[in-house]
Amino acid sequence: MHQQRLPPPPPTQSKKRARLSTKQRRIRQLEKDAARRTFNGNGMNDSLPPLPVTQDSNEGNDHAEENDDAGFDTLFGHPYGALPYGNIHFASRPSSSDVSVAADGQPSSLSSLWHPDKVRHDGLGPNLRQLNDEQLITILSFVDGPTLASGICCASKFLYVAGHHEELWRDLVLRRWGEVGFTVRDPHDTEEDDSGSAQGMGATGCWKDIYAWNHHPSDSTKAIIQRHSPISIQGIYSDTFFRSWLCRSFALQPSWLSTHTVSSIPHSEMTTERFYKEYEETNTPVLIKGASKTWPAVQQWTRDYLLSVASEKRFRATSGAAPLPAQFTLADYLNYCDSSTEEAPLYLFDRTFATKCPQLLHDFDKSLKSTCGWWDGETAEFGHDLFGVLGEGRRPDYQWLIVGPKRSGSCFHIDPNCTHAWNAPIIGRKRWIFYPPGVTPPGVFPSPNGDDVCMPISIGEWFLTFWDQHVERRKDPDVRRRPLECTACPGDVLFVPHGWWHMVMNIGDDDIVGGVAGGDERGVSVALTRNYVSGSNLSDVLRFLDSRVNQISGCRDRGEAIQPDDLGREFRKALSEVKRCTSESLGEEKKDDNGEEDKGRWTDLLERAERKAKEGWGCDAWVDLPSTCPGSGNADKGNCGDPSEEKDEPKDGTKSSILARAKQSSSSTNGCGASAIPASSGSFSFSFL
């Protein structure tokens, strides 16, 4: 039987579609554009951190109620007027007064040619506008400085903003002068434009100024160089340009600094036995108040003193966001700290300061041994700084001078080579956040074997994106899994146990809750730190040296240092050869009751550590994958878990990236809102090279 066709839909449906208003079509087009840019990584996407909404408890803080909203403010406006891409929905069309008459006599208006992203649309042209902003910045990174300044930045309003992206000029400076050093102009030696200073850019904090100052070596040319003063452009909508500014300009919320859960002990109450039994052996952080207040470094180190002893010495500074390290004189680096407003500023983390300037070492080394006897390698009965038996040049790096501008610091990491550490602020305060071994911080996604990690690139991004999750972690039903926090001040010394994830942010005295701005050094942080091996972590260090050869750091770029493949063997040999000495004479070897030579000083300690190392890890930060267990065929080769042998790889042989696993893990949360990553997912060893 022939089936009759259904009649076409009534014409009213198509007419309704045709009668969509101009406004509705515009909204739909905006939605399509937003969706396309989100796909391309340039729209309203996860790269733009949301501002946190959780408010902490502020008991005892009279200013908390009035200041808690400070975290939602920014310290200065975007210097070039960029706004998040979502603001394009509020872009206003030209008014009716813009109507004109076309050549054919018909009314024409600018609004008929108007595009919501007009500055970008017109400024890039039909070809470049197809790229998202991250791709555009990548292309501009291949342009040299003079062309970028006199060509690209002058081509259009949008390219003016894109061409002044700070990272472009930073990379130009580092690639050209990073290894040989460059001069940073003193931000206080010339008259500044008030608007530039208020913006935090232009008069200070501009890598373009550093490039110009070093590009023209003659003094006569430098005399006429003016500092860059940004021009704010209306109609710039870009998350790429806005994100880095947001992560460096947000105001610190007072409640972010008010929690103190790390044990705090007055120096007068701490003894060597108590420190070892209650903190080192239990692997627990502790803040020792007043432990360094008598050190000459704490009493004497000011900007003028440091410049008097090390002004022209060159130090190494790095950043996780920068492609290369930089060599600074101390004078130039302090000028950089005064002017820096970067998301991830270059951080001076110098391991050779004691050789370059012995006076800096003299200002704390002897005082450390007298005030903190538990860290005296010559007298500590439980063993301290055992890597020292290898000799100064052959051992891994272990001590650093740390200098950085306010808001600089280090993102979450675990200290290298399974070592403990102590950290002493000398100028400026430090805010610390700890996560126990085996408990991964929110936003941090290590690979199962610990070789790689995916995390926010800057401290600001972590605070803005993951603070709410961190607050939830404080409520974990298992107290042992809760994070710990503290603020260390000059005069204090903090013990950092091995295997703990920790993040550090330098904060100035003007950030004290309800306090008053501090002295001249408030914008610069200076600290000292040492990493060490003692009897409490020796077994884990030995196991690490055997099974994590790929992750051993602090020796690969020094020819005189013992290389990773040999470090475990040489360390054991050196420990076994250290002789026990009498108390009367450190040079006289001790004999037993029969007159025979006694065991080595650390023989018993080494034997106990070897037994514990064979039994397994003493710290939950590390777990053994099948190919990393000591005694397996791959352990001595440093094959720390070949991904092809991991159980969680897809059966089809493809390998999932860390980022893919991070996204998958972040989609599921546990009962307290924390990312559901198993504690046994490994760890990340932070390299100081």
Fraction of helical residues: 25-40%
Task: Find the structural class using helix and strand composition.
Answer: alpha+beta
Q: Give the oligomer, counting copies of the same chain as homo and different chains as hetero.
A: single chain
Query: What is the helix tally?
Result: 24
Strand content: 5-15%
Produce the secondary structure layout:
Layout: H1 11-18, H2 22-40, H3 64-67, E1 99-101, E2 107-109, H4 118-128, H5 133-140, H6 145-150, H7 157-163, H8 166-177, H9 194-199, H10 207-215, H11 219-222, H12 239-249, E3 263-266, H13 272-280, E4 286-289, H14 296-300, H15 303-310, E5 314-318, E6 326-329, H16 330-339, E7 347-350, H17 353-356, H18 358-362, H19 365-371, E8 399-405, E9 409-413, E10 420-427, E11 429-435, E12 445-446, E13 453-454, H20 459-473, E14 484-488, E15 493-496, E16 501-507, E17 524-532, H21 538-547, H22 564-577, H23 603-615, H24 658-666
Parallel strand pairs: 3-4
Antiparallel strand pairs: 1-2, 4-15, 5-6, 5-7, 7-8, 8-17, 9-16, 10-15, 10-17, 11-14, 11-16, 12-13
How would you characterize the overall build of this protein?
It is a single chain. The protein has 689 residues and is α+β, with helices and mostly antiparallel strands. The chain is 31% helix and 12% strand. The chain is built from 24 helices and 17 strands. The strands form four sheets. A nine-stranded mixed sheet has the order 3-4-15-10-17-8-7-5-6, with helices on one face. Strand 1 and strand 2 form a beta hairpin. Helix 8 runs parallel beside helix 10, helix 12 crosses helix 20 and helix 21 packs across helix 23. It is globular and about 90 Å long. The chain starts with 10 loop residues before the first helix and ends in a 23-residue tail after the last helix. The C terminus is likely disordered.
